[in-house]
């Protein structure tokens, strides 16, 4: 956890790092991904049969190679809004017998040439775990879980065997619907109807496969929907409603996207997600207290399974939602990831939306891939910011202007230097500093560095509007070394990682 003290703009900022103060373990699942049948995420993204860049399965090899750099632990599928009318049976079996269906979420046609078995094969090739979001309104969840995980001589397990997969896939993570509170959802329902249905489904699914992890559908983490569903669904094992020997709900999903045309508003907006996590954590505690959940029962964690910088007006969902990300957006992604590291006690998973082409740091063309500005913070975090969150304190000036969302100004500080710190099992300390100021470098005292050689990785550019699209490639990672002595200057509009051995 990083604490903050505001000082005068004329004073020298200080960042104090306490490598010996381990706060909480970082779940590697905070670096998870998300693939949805939307735009070019699946078709032309991860799956492009006939392209010379694809393998014998039709999987883009350059995309696989790039995603392996991120060491992605889990990938969510098939949505998102798409799952509301998705029938998983349409996407299994012989491809020439799979029906094309109207796709209502993004107003297209789904050919179903890529479905359950193709996605699970792609996960095996990539080296990641699958996470399925269940259709909560118009399809059966029981059959899908049985198809993926069944071991007996049963209908859907035998269907899987007939389709060429003898052994179960053992899919661990299952979401109980997606954004069912939203008016854009075909499966929209009231919080009362959702909570009642979620308990019924959870009970049945855990009877079918007690090993699965079930994820409740929350809203932003700071809403009456979150309060109601958590207090109705987080129950003691063997309670009258659950009648199960184990807890029915393991995680609580929340979603948020941020964006602004103003750079500082854009970069600081992810701090709203931090406050939402804090509030959702309190609501989980409240549900456990009100429902007398015993302390030996595992406390649910937060699954932030959709997050990113996204302005739906400039990247329209029904038109493929292909964002052209700027340096400002990259700094916002850096603060998003700082939030997840700082809140590692509560965040059990976070999935960037999405992994390829659709509001994504990675874009494909027929000839290759483009790593957008937002790729580089994600690459640095996923490579180095693992292990334990450690104590840090920041003393610096702060931004005083309007925020996006507006309520952020009233509930959260917005320092010019946004910081998170970790220590890995290898004994290396890692600090990320995002300087959101558009005009000012900050000479800063960095305390707690006990090494003569500090590796430094910097992400910045000429100005906050530069992109890596259209062959420009103006943002990347520049590596250097600092001797750990004196003041260090964090450049304007930059993300800096410092890394040193504590042993």
Automatic annotation (TrEMBL):
Gene3D superfamilies from the entry? Glycosidases, Golgi alpha-mannosidase II
Give the source species: Helicocarpus griseus UAMH5409
Which key words tag this protein in UniProt?
Carbohydrate metabolism, Glycosidase, Hydrolase
What the record says about family reads: Belongs to the glycosyl hydrolase 51 family.
Q: What does this protein do?
A: Alpha-L-arabinofuranosidase involved in the degradation of arabinoxylan, a major component of plant hemicellulose. Acts only on small linear 1,5-alpha-linked L-arabinofuranosyl oligosaccharides.
Q: What is this protein called?
A: non-reducing end alpha-L-arabinofuranosidase
Q: Where is the Alpha-L-arabinofuranosidase C-terminal domain?
A: 305-494
> Which EC numbers characterise this protein's activity in its record?
3.2.1.55
**Pfam families with a match to the protein in the record:** Alpha-L-AF_C, ASD1_dom
Instruction: Give the top-level enzyme category.
Output: hydrolase
- The organism's superkingdom is given as Eukaryota
- Catalytic activity from the UniProt record: Hydrolysis of terminal non-reducing alpha-L-arabinofuranoside residues in alpha-L-arabinosides
BP term (GO), one:
arabinan catabolic process
């Amino acid at each position: 956890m990083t604490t903050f003290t505001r000082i005068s703009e004329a004073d020298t900022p200080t960042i104090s790092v306490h490598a010996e103060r381990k706060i909480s373990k970082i779940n590697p699942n905070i670096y998870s991904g998300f693939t949805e049948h939307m735009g070019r995420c699946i078709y032309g993204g991860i799956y492009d049969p006939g392209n010379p860049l694809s393998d014998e399965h039709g999987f883009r090899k350059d995309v696989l190679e790039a995603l392996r750099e991120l060491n992605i632990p889990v990938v969510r599928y098939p949505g998102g809004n798409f799952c509301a009318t998705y029938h998983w049976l349409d996407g299994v079996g012989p491809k020439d017998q799979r029906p094309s269906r109207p796709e209502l979420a993004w107003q297209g046609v789904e050919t179903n040439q890529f479905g359950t078995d193709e996605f699970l094969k792609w996960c095996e090739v990539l080296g990641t775990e699958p996470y399925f979001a269940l259709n909560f309104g118009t399809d059966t969840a029981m059959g899908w879980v049985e198809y993926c995980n069944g071991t007996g001589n049963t209908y859907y397990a035998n269907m899987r065997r007939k389709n060429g997969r003898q052994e179960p896939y053992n899919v661990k993570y299952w979401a109980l619907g997606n954004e069912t509170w939203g008016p854009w959802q075909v499966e929209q329902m009231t919080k009362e109807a959702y909570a009642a249905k979620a308990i019924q489904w959870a009970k049945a699914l855990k009877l079918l496969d007690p090993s699965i992890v079930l994820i409740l559908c929350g809203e932003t983490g700071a809403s009456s929907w979150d309060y109601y569903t958590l207090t109705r669904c987080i129950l003691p094992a063997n309670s009258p409603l659950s009648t199960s020997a184990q807890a029915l709900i393991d995680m609580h999903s929340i979603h948020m996207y941020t964006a602004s045309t103003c750079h500082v508003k854009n970069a600081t907006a992810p701090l709203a997600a931090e406050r939402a996590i804090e509030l959702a954590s309190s609501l989980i505690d409240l549900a456990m207290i009100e429902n007398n959940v015993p302390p030996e029962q595992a406390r649910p964690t937060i699954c932030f399974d959709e997050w990113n910088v996204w302005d739906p007006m400039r990247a329209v969902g029904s038109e493929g939602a292909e964002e052209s990300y700027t340096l400002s957006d990259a700094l916002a992604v850096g603060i998003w990831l700082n939030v997840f590291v700082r809140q590692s006690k509560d965040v059990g998973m976070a999935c960037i939306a999405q992994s390829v082409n659709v509001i994504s740091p990675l874009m494909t063309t027929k000839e290759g891939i483009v790593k957008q500005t937002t790729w580089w913070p994600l690459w640095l975090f996923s490579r180095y910011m693992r292990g334990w969150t450690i104590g840090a304190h920041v003393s610096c000036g702060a931004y005083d202007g309007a925020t996006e969302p507006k309520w952020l100004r009233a509930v959260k500080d917005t320092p010019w230097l946004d910081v998170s710190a970790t220590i890995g099992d290898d004994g290396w300390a890692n600090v990320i500093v995002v300087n959101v100021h558009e005009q000012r470098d900050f000479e800063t005292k960095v305390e707690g560095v006990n090494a003569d050689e500090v590796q430094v990785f910097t992400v910045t550019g000429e100005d906050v509007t530069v992109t890596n699209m259209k062959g420009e490639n103006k943002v990347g990672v520049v590596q250097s070394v600092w001797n750990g002595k004196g003041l260090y200057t964090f450049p304007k509009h930059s993300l800096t990682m410092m890394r040193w051995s504590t042993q």
